[in-house]
Design goal:
This protein is of the alpha+beta class. It folds into four domains: 214 residues, Serine Threonine Protein Phosphatase 5, Tetratricopeptide repeat (Alpha Horseshoe); 102 residues, no CATH class; 64 residues, OB fold (Dihydrolipoamide Acetyltransferase, E2P), CATH 2.40.50; 61 residues, Nucleic acid-binding proteins (OB fold (Dihydrolipoamide Acetyltransferase, E2P)). The protein is built from 17 helices and 13 strands. Strands 8-12-13-11-10-9 form a six-stranded mixed beta sheet, with no helix packed on it. Strands 5-4-3-6-7 form a five-stranded antiparallel beta sheet, with no helix packed on it. The longest helix has 27 residues. The protein is flat. It starts with a helix and ends with a strand.
């Protein structure tokens, strides 16, 4: 490579507009960068997958990236994508490469770069989605990146990735990352708009409650305490709760919960000690606060946190309403069902929020607890039947057509409800009024049938 460098560099300097000379120098630089990356990969195998670079590696990478930036190669080619592919595991540790790639973002990726990779356990993120996430992490962690990329530019990277990337399983992380960047930029209301849909799907995950809490941390500490308490309660292990324990402690002290603040600091400290970890400076500062009392009894803390967290769902869904509905159909996946509210509205219900844990049957009545704002269902349980608009019963003779479906008077009966021996029998059907997409009009559809 040294000989290639000695030829390519002078040629490119002498002919800065020659695309062949520029391309030759680029690929020499690429080979040197690949050599550095290979060393990082080998070390990562021995270091729990840590792909961060040491100072000498970073200096070497930056020197070759400076030459690549000097070449000013037009976007749309393979060069910049090749760099991202080579450094996709540690892109966030290379701010110069982040900035160089972001400057080419408009034409950076081909269609295949927007497709997720198929893996044995599901999708792996596409190259485009990976770049967006790594860029966000670098932006939050590096002052130089923040000086050269505005929050609006970061948001545009997210927006373009949402429009063009074909990822399904990992799209949720774009909202999570954008919320964290917006919090960093102190755009708290905008951050809430992104994290709330994530949290509604990930209520058992402490990190999701944590991000929502940070949107209130400066503006409404009392709400932040509620949400951080919830995050700690669902964290499972103290090692996952450490950031929240350290963040909630000073807020509690300001709200005159001094002993409880000390409990959080002590619990975090005990976690570090029990794992043999070195206590970090942020926790050391809390330990040295004059209000900290290491003699507090930690046994009172779980109950206190649970009491504080009790109202957390109010900030997740806002005002709640309760409404009786009827089960319209079970999802083919077996993971939920659709509940009929009116002829214009039915809502999906996840099996995980059904109180009994069991799926009801079509035609069963359920009481739903929902967000008043957008009708998101947060709880469901079986209930007695009630009179509902556009829901009724009909009796008559079942007539089955050659196509397998049938009719009772004016009520359509889907083939999934019918058995062959029912033809000509006297039956009772429970029906709802729903929209027939083929006929483009409303009509009665049976949900349940009983032979009389």
């Amino acid at each position: 490579m040294a000989e290639a460098w000695s030829l390519a560099r002078p040629s490119a300097e002498a002919n800065p507009q020659d695309p062949y000379a520029k391309s030759a120098l680029f690929w020499v630089c690429y080979d040197y960068l690949k050599e550095v990356q290979n060393g990082i990969k080998e070390r990562a195998k021995r270091n729990n997958g840590d792909h961060s670079s040491n100072p000498s590696e970073l200096q070497r990478v930056n020197s070759f990236l400076d030459w690549i930036a000097w070449l000013n190669i037009p976007s749309g080619g393979i060069e910049y994508r090749s760099l991202i592919r080579q450094f996709r595991k540690n892109l966030e540790y290379l701010p110069k490469l982040i900035l160089l790639s972001a400057s080419q973002f408009t034409d950076l990726f081909e269609d295949k770069d927007k497709e997720p990779y198929e893996a044995p356990k599901g999708e792996s993120p596409s190259l485009m989605l990976t770049f967006a996430r790594k860029t966000a992490k670098a932006w939050r962690g590096d002052e130089n990146v923040r000086q050269q990329l505005t929050i609006d530019q970061i948001c545009e990277i997210f927006a373009k990735t949402r429009r063009e990337a074909k990822d399904k399983q990992n799209r949720i992380w774009l909202d999570y990352d954008e919320a964290k960047c917006l919090i960093f930029a102190k755009r708290f209301a905008q951050a809430r708009d992104y994290i709330l849909p994530v949290l509604r799907k990930k209520q058992g995950n402490s990190w999701a409650w944590h991000v929502l809490a940070m949107t209130f941390y400066e503006e409404d500490p009392a709400v932040a305490i509620v949400l951080l308490s919830k995050a700690i309660c669902v964290s499972g292990e103290d090692s996952f709760a450490l950031p929240m324990l350290k963040e909630i402690a000073p807020l509690l002290v300001k709200q005159e919960f001094v002993d409880e603040g000390s409990m959080c600091v002590k619990r975090a400290t005990d976690c570090y000690i029990s794992n043999g970890w070195k206590i970090k400076p942020d926790l050391e500062r809390l330990i040295n606060e004059p209000w900290y009392n290491k003699g507090v009894d930690l046994s009172f803390l779980p109950t206190f946190l649970q009491e504080q967290a009790a109202t957390a769902p109010n900030y997740l869904f806002g005002e709640l309403t309760s409404q009786v509905a009827i089960v319209e159909f079970i999802h083919a996946s077996g993971k939920g069902f659709h509940a009929y509210l009116s002829k214009e509205k039915s809502v999906p219900v996840r099996r995980g929020i059904v109180k009994s844990g069991k799926l009801p049957s079509p035609g069963d009545y359920v009481r739903l607890t929902m967000s008043a704002e957008d009708k998101t269902v947060i709880a469901a349980e079986s209930c007695d039947s009630e009179d509902l608009d556009k829901v009724g019963r009909a009796q008559g003779t079942l007539k089955i057509t050659d196509k397998g479906f049938g009719f009772v008077d004016r009520t359509f009966v889907p083939s999934s409800l019918i058995q062959d021996e029912m033809h000509g029998k006297s039956v009772s059907v429970l029906w709802v009024v729903s929209f027939d997409k083929k006929k483009k009009k409303f009509g009665r559809k049976a949900l349940k049938i009983d032979v009389l």
